[in-house]
Amino acid sequence: MEDDETELQNPFPSPPSHYTKYSTHNLRLLSLLRERAGDDVQNINQREVLSDQTEVPDWELTQLEKPRVDWILDEPEAYYDVFGDRWFVKDKILSLGDAGGNQLYPSDPTIDRRPALRSILRSLLVTYSSLMSSLLLPPPLNPEEPPEWQRHVDWISNLTTNLMAAANDLRPVQARGNLESMMRRQLELRREETKALHEKCDALEDKLREIRSSVANIPTAQSWQLTNVPRGASNGNSLIPLDSQSAQKNQQLSDVDVLLWAEQIR
């Protein structure tokens, strides 16, 4: 009980304890159960159906079924509650006209709004100029009649609301454009990195080609003098390199000499 109260007080609660049931083995058992039982999964004994399987749980495997949301989608305002917050499935951003405001630009997003927005901006500047002039007028004689400047302020509020609403309608377009520019920049960076890798690989291949050519120019046939050291010597048998002149002076070893030497060093 104390653990439950502590969990409720946590601002970021952990997943429910039954999340451990969604293991790969249990999900495979559920799939096998539905395959063998068909649509009549609720009215069968899962232990009898899965008698050839191991580690069949005591609780019903049908608890692992995904919740159905089709009945939520049929509602006019489909929503669901998570941790006390309500989320709408078909979330829709209301326009200024739908929200009860005086919308001065077309609601259809396919229509060009720039002419309407220019008219709103010009009207805003003219109304602001009229507001400055109305401040010099004397107050009205009738106290119930609103002053001239109040009418201009209300109209300026309406115009600025339309400008802000029209700008907010362009947020998805702006976000899409920013995302496209970010993806284009990432693509350019990857192309630059790939080009740098190819240049580095080409440089390494040229270096390896130079090393191969330099190694190929080194003479591979060298003469070695085989020295026979008696047994028990600490140096053992060794090969002593000779230059070309001394190699010509020494007598070449035959295959029989090599075999005799191999027998001696066994």
TrEMBL record:
<comment type="function">
    <text>Component of the Mediator complex, a coactivator involved in the regulated transcription of nearly all RNA polymerase II-dependent genes. Mediator functions as a bridge to convey information from gene-specific regulatory proteins to the basal RNA polymerase II transcription machinery.</text>
</comment>
<keyword id="KW-0804">Transcription</keyword>
<comment type="subunit">
    <text>Component of the Mediator complex.</text>
</comment>
<dbReference type="GO" id="GO:0016592">
    <property type="term" value="C:mediator complex"/>
</dbReference>
<keyword id="KW-0175">Coiled coil</keyword>
<dbReference type="GO" id="GO:0006357">
    <property type="term" value="P:regulation of transcription by RNA polymerase II"/>
</dbReference>
<dbReference type="InterPro" id="IPR037212">
    <property type="entry name" value="Med7/Med21-like"/>
</dbReference>
<dbReference type="InterPro" id="IPR009244">
    <property type="entry name" value="Mediatior_Med7"/>
</dbReference>
<protein>
    <recommendedName>
        <fullName>Mediator of RNA polymerase II transcription subunit 7</fullName>
    </recommendedName>
</protein>
<dbReference type="GO" id="GO:0003712">
    <property type="term" value="F:transcription coregulator activity"/>
</dbReference>
<keyword id="KW-0010">Activator</keyword>
<feature type="coiled-coil region">
    <location>
        <begin position="187"/>
        <end position="214"/>
    </location>
</feature>
<dbReference type="InterPro" id="IPR044888">
    <property type="entry name" value="Mediatior_Med7_sf"/>
</dbReference>
<comment type="similarity">
    <text>Belongs to the Mediator complex subunit 7 family.</text>
</comment>
<dbReference type="GO" id="GO:0070847">
    <property type="term" value="C:core mediator complex"/>
</dbReference>
<dbReference type="Pfam" id="PF05983">
    <property type="entry name" value="Med7"/>
</dbReference>
<keyword id="KW-0539">Nucleus</keyword>
<keyword id="KW-0805">Transcription regulation</keyword>
